[in-house]
Amino acid sequence: MKQAKELLKIEDVAKLLKMSEGHIYNLVSRREIPFTRISRKAIRFDPDEIQEWLKKKKVEVAPTHQELITEEEVA
């Protein structure tokens, strides 16, 4: 039998992301972070979904001025 995945609580996600619990609640209320509502008051987070959400939030680093100059010299 497959074991159920351990879901995270608000405080777990706050620690994981190094954010306040209040900020996590704000993300939930704006539906900006994936969550599951277990009951009217209970919210849980799938750790895999949180990791995927983080990957989607990643911002690529822009090339530096020096890298752009080097690319132009090669072209």
How would you characterize this protein structure?
The protein has one domain. The protein has about 80 residues and is mainly α. β1 and β2 form a beta hairpin. A two-stranded antiparallel ribbon has the order 1-2. It is elongated. The chain is built from four helices and two strands. About 5% of the residues are buried. The termini are far apart. The mean pLDDT is about 90. α1 crosses α2.
Number of helices: 4
Strand content: 5-15%
Distance between the termini: 59 Å
Instruction: Please give the number of β-strands.
Output: 2
- Biggest sheet features: 2 strands, antiparallel
| Oligomeric description of these chains | single chain
Helix-strand category: mainly alpha
Strand arrangement in the largest pleated sheet: 1-2
Rg of Cα set: 19 Å
Shape: elongated
**Number of folding domains?**
1
Name the helicity range: 40-55%
Low-confidence stretches: none
H and E order: HHEEHH
The overall average pLDDT, rounded, is 88
Please name the defining characteristics of this protein.
75 residues; mainly alpha; 4 helices
What is the structure about, briefly put?
The protein has 75 residues and is mainly alpha-helical. The protein contains 4 helices and 2 strands, in the order H-H-E-E-H-H. Helix content is 51%, strand content 5%.
